[in-house]
Structure formats: structure tokens, C-alpha cells
């Protein structure tokens, strides 16, 4: 290898050490401005209603008063005239290495029941009262409506009895770096789910993002970079001087 090129490469490499890698988004169309592109909507058999695209300040089916989408002009929202269970999900590939990972989204609930009811199932066609919304990270091979512990890798959000029945849009942020780091190179599923069999229920979602850094090395102080660059320059100069002496 040409030693001059080698020294130059070392100098450039040294001066670029510590530059952070930009966070890579793993979720596409998180604002639903492209409709449901990238997403899958499923409804349990015999369900009434679904996840719909929502604009303005009225719910998609019943025209109930709801807040406008917090980002852009469109959100995803459940609505129905009867009981049902609905999921909205997107699969994503976890990078080979993960240093940081942040999942964020805005959520809204409008529950016309007197409380949230949260059995460990998304089934609506049973005698068990079920009125809940939740967000989970699942194994991609699992049933989209599963609540089995081995399949639900992480519960990101859920409504609970006693929570306010109606909310504006709230922003939720979760650090899921450890979860993704233990599942590198695999495909996982981000699921938004809503079930109601007591009264009307709207679950709104918008501004979904999942950003991951493959590496994050602290940027050295300017003085450190200067000393490092000077050291490399001196080492390269000494190497060239030695070559000249050997050639005499």
C-alpha cells in the first residue's frame, strides 16, 4: 500500500471519529398523509367499523366531536356503530446493531362507556365486557389479535380502569433500545389495537415514528481532535523521514 495514501487516510479517519450516525426511521407514513400506505388494517370477524382515515373535527362514521389531527391533515381513528375489535399494524426490520431507539406517537381516546374494561383479550364477541385501546410490539409470526405473553414482546401503552374517558391528543415516547438490541436482524410488528362491546369508542393515532441509531460515539472536544490530527501528522512525517534515510 502507498504509505502517503495510508497516512492521509489515517488522518481523515482520525478527524471523523465520533461523528454520530443519523437516526434511521423504521416506520413509514407515520402521519397517514399517504392514507394507509405501509400499514395493514384488520377487523375481527363480525366486527362493525374499522380504523379509518380521519380529518377535521368529526369522527369518520358517527360524526362525534373529536380533536383535529395533531400533525398534517390526516390521522387514523377507529369508529363504528356497533361492537368490534380492530388492529392497525406495520412490520419493521430491526437493524443489525442498535444503540438508541425511540418510539413516539400521538394518541386520542373517546370512550362513551363509564370506564375502561381491560380483560387480557381483544375478543369482543364474548360475555366479557371489553372496552380498551392498547399499543404493542409483537413477534411478526403472531396472530395480529394475540394477547399471549410469548407473542407480545412489549406493551407500549394501554388504557386502564380509572383513566380519563376522553382525552385530547397526547404524545407518548418510549425508549425501546434494549428490546430492539435483543432482536437485531429480525422483523417485528408495531400494533395499535382497539376493542369495544359496551358503547362507542374512538381511538386516534398520528405522528408515529421509530428512530434508531446504529451507533452513537461521543464527538471529541475540538482540542482533542486537534491533538489527534497533529499526532497523526507527526507520525506520518516521521515515517517519510525514515524512508528517505533508508534510501540514501
Structure summary:
The chain is of the alpha+beta class and 248 residues long.
Structure in words:
There is one protein chain. This protein is of the alpha+beta class and 248 residues long. The protein is built from three helices and eleven strands. The protein has helices at residues 3-16, 177-181, 222-247, and strands spanning 24-25, 40-43, 50-54, 75-79, 84-93, 100-111, 131-139, 152-158, 170-175, 187-196, 201-213. Strands 1, 3, 4, 6, 9 and 11 form a six-stranded antiparallel beta sheet that branches. The chain has a five-stranded antiparallel beta sheet with strand order 2-5-10-7-8, with no helix packed on it. α1 (3-16) runs antiparallel to α3. The longest helix has 26 residues, at 222-247. It is globular. The model is unreliable at 1-18 and 221-229 (pLDDT under 50).
How many individual helices?
Answer: 3
Order of SSEs = HEEEEEEEEEHEEH
Largest sheet descriptor: 6 strands, antiparallel
Low-pLDDT runs: 1-18, 221-229
Rg measurement, Å: 26 Å
The percent of residues in helical segments reads 10-25%
Structural class: alpha+beta
Give the mean pLDDT: 86
Beta-strand content bin: 25-35%
Number of strands: 11
Judging from the principal axes of the Cα atoms, what is the shape? globular
Assembly state (oligomeric): single chain
Terminus-to-terminus distance = 22 Å
Features:
248 residues; 5-stranded antiparallel beta sheet
Which SSEs are present, and which pair or pack?
Blueprint: H1 3-16, E1 24-25, E2 40-43, E3 50-54, E4 75-79, E5 84-93, E6 100-111, E7 131-139, E8 152-158, E9 170-175, H2 177-181, E10 187-196, E11 201-213, H3 222-247
